[in-house]
């Protein structure tokens, strides 16, 4: 027995210092939303902010809002807010583009700082866009640069005199396993390589200390734990010590030292703004800023503590109620090694997740057989873990995954 009965869980919810944040999100009654690691819930304040941005700033202010509403400084202003969540300084983070595009920027910038080296290194099973960007850059280089991926437990051993860049995700997208950022960065630097961290499953979910770890570059998305909305703009971190020497390959007009001088020749801005490209997506940045402001109001230590406790409760309840039903835990059980989602493998994973959605539990599925359950402390309750597990057991007992509607996987899983 896990010891987690409903009364015990309700008592934890009653004493939860973060309980008040739940009401700041728009969630329908009865829904247990376990997919905030893929798309965060809608903060209620975002509705008013977007209405203001659309009807007043755009509708009334029109072009004057670039200055009057400070649109022009939004990428830097919001980037500085994200920096506080990442252990970075003002002027080291900028909001721009997508994670994929920012990966391209970071990788090529790092390569420009290690011109004598030829290898971009990562691990097999990393998030696909990380690997795809590496492969695309290698192909475009005409053979001068190689993209290489090795097994995760071998990646540090592969560091050598030919490795220019090590690209890793701090929290693995599928398993939730956490890498030791400080140790990995130290090992890479000892080998003469620069490190790029993908923080897409870290920011707003676990404590991050980029400067404490000596990180070189980092990227991440705004639509997961930062609750910035679907397709929210991403962000890029460049350590201040690298900014003046890193050469922007995507040399867009907003990254120019004086964009409105309209010069023919490109001159890179001196600071983090050199990593901007085109006109910032103001509506997306406005929504993202609401999500970041909301996260900033929470105590990160309390958020992480609740996340870990919710994860432990979920795993304990799965052990109690779903033992012998075909589940295999693929996330680390140890707190220090686990991010803010818990994943299980099951041979009927895809159909099971679809059946759960019809029963008011939304998680997601990752090929070939992994069910991911996001643990988002700002709007999840301890009792939600029990309700979710009981519905998982019901799906198993009734073999609800056998529904012929799920014989073919949808475009989004």
TrEMBL record:
Catalysed reaction, written as an equation: L-kynurenine + H2O = anthranilate + L-alanine + H(+); 3-hydroxy-L-kynurenine + H2O = 3-hydroxyanthranilate + L-alanine + H(+)
Provide a GO CC annotation, any one.
cytoplasm
Top EC category: hydrolase
The record ties this protein, via InterPro entries, to:
Kynureninase (IPR010111), PyrdxlP-dep_Trfase (IPR015424), PyrdxlP-dep_Trfase_major (IPR015421), PyrdxlP-dep_Trfase_small (IPR015422)
Q: What is its EC number?
A: 3.7.1.3
Where is pyridoxal 5'-phosphate annotated to bind?
Answer: 99-100, 127-130, 169, 198, 201, 223, 253, 279
User: Any one Gene Ontology biological process term?
Assistant: L-kynurenine catabolic process
- Similarity section: Belongs to the kynureninase family.
Q: What does this protein do?
A: Catalyzes the cleavage of L-kynurenine (L-Kyn) and L-3-hydroxykynurenine (L-3OHKyn) into anthranilic acid (AA) and 3-hydroxyanthranilic acid (3-OHAA), respectively.
Complexes and interactors? Homodimer.
UniProt-listed PANTHER family: KYNURENINASE (PTHR14084)
Q: What is this protein called?
A: Kynureninase
- Species: Novosphingobium sediminis
UniProt gene name: kynU
